[in-house]
Every structure is written in C-alpha cells, then in structure tokens.
Predict the 3D structure of the following.
Amino acid sequence: MDKEQSLIAPSILSADFSNIREDIRLVETAGADILHLDVMDGHFVPNITFGPKMVKDIKQITKLPLDVHLMISEPEKYVVDFAKAGADWISVHFEASVHLNRLINQIKELGCKAGVVINPATSVDILDEILPYVDYILLMSVNPGFGGQKFIDTSFKKAARLREKLVAIGSEAMIEMDGGIDLSNIKKLKNSGVDVFVAGNSVFGSGDPTKAISEMKKILNS
Ligand code: DX5
Ligand code: ZN
C-alpha cells in the first residue's frame, strides 16, 4: 500500500445488515480501499454490534482488507479470535488496554497491522511511548458508539500534532480518522495529515454509496 495514498474506509455500521453482501459489493466496486468493521460490546461503549463470526463471514465475500476497530473492554481476550476470523488490521483503544505494548506486539505477531485508538478527549501526548511500535493510529473524531454523529472540530489540530510527532521520530505509521467525515471536511483532514478516512453515514446513508466514494476520491485528489 502506497504510503502517500489516501485510503477510504467505509464503515459498515451504517450499511444494511440484511443486505450486507450487496452493500459491500457496491463500495468495493466504487473503489473503497479497506472495509472498516466496528465491534462494540455494550460495556466500553453504549452500543452492541457484532463479533468474530461477522468478520469471518464478511471475509468470504470481499477482497478488501478488513480493518477491525475494537470498541470493547479487555481487548486482549479477543484479538486472537478476530485475527483468526480474517482481520487484516486490528485497533484497540488506549483507554481499554492495560498492557498496551504487549497487546500491540501480539497483534503484529498474529500477522495483522496493529493500531491504537484514542477517544476525542484523550491527548495525543499519551501516545509517545507506543508510537514507535504501531502501524497506525486511529483518532476518534466523535465519541465512539454510534454512526452519524457530528465531527468534533478540534480533530484537525489533533491530527496535525500527531503528524508532527510521527515525523519527529521518523515513523511511517498511518493516521486514520473516524467519525463525522464527509465531503465538507475530508480535504482539510488530508491537509492535516490524515491518511485513512473512515466514513459510515456519508457513504451508506447518502442514498448513493458509489457516488459518495467517487466524490470523496475526486476531492482527495484535487
Ligand atoms: C463510531 C464508529 C465509526 C462510525 C463512523 O463509534 O467507530 O466507525 O461507523 O460513522 P460516521 O462516519 O457515520 O460518523
Ligand atoms: Zn470505527
């Protein structure tokens, strides 16, 4: 994957679960780069979605790399199951991980890209010790738990500060952002240093996912 390239990661949270095969086919054909899968446990976040079985089934119907965002307590108990199910990228929340360095190494040993996620109110400064070990950092630009929320404006500066930190240590890690991303903010986010753009509502809630993705790509490449 070219580091300079911007990646679009549709989040199936806003897709129609009863028609998931068709929804995934649409975004894959439209040029999505990876597929973002939100795992929620009703404990770390106030919502429940799905577990490894869903990841395993989706793996059978798409060639897109699967980007599994674990919004769960005690993620160390489940990373093996998600890796076995076919996750290509696995991210765990800083706020939910007690032994984060060990967990990041474990995810890499399982053959996956390893990411750490931080909530909107968590500062990028707490990442200093883990940055040299991660493949990507996922910055939440909404409070995790639900699709279709409003983008939190301080996220632009947060991405820019993180990019400075990565440059300072010579890290190739990617910056992913998640929550409230749409045509109005995607270009400014790219200019702030974001590489991977998660989009749920603005893709699947748009009525025309194909058009939504092609417009995002056009803006990113403009
Ligand atoms: C929210 C999830 C997101 C969500 C983003 O907790 O982590 O991935 O699907 O959805 P939108 O793009 O609708 O904000
Ligand atoms: Zn997510």
